[in-house]
Amino acid sequence: MAAKKTTTAAAKKAPAAKKAPAAKKTAAAGKRKPNAAFMKEMTPSPALAEIVGSKALPRTAVVSKIWEYIKKNNLQDAKNKRQINADDKLKPIFGGKKSVTMFELTALVNKNLS
């Protein structure tokens, strides 16, 4: 009988499952405020300016314009849509590479903004 009591006592001492923390409520219930770093206007390099223009733009707008250019010129790889093939205007931005993944794109674009 003593053995049964110890196993029952051990089961009772097991830690209970933790509850998920309550989500924080913001003043504007469903709307997020954009991050100021993304909305800061940046000047594109001369190579990047050939695609997006020389006017200062936020990073988000620059990436959107590059995607417009990629789709307009059919530069996404047909088999692997994550891969972007470079043309003459994109090669300097891609650091001379023939193709990059869409995940590398933002980092490469940021190097061409000041």
Automatic annotation (TrEMBL):
All residue ranges annotated as the DM2 domain in the record: 37-114
Biased composition (Low complexity): 1-29
PROSITE patterns to which the protein is assigned, alphabetical: SWIB_MDM2 (PS51925)
Region (Disordered), start-end ranges: 1-37
Regions annotated as coiled coil: none
PANTHER family (UniProt xref): SWI/SNF-RELATED MATRIX-ASSOCIATED ACTIN-DEPENDENT REGULATOR OF CHROMATIN SUBFAMILY D
Protein name: DM2 domain-containing protein
Lineage start: Bacteria, Pseudomonadati, Myxococcota, Myxococcia, Myxococcales
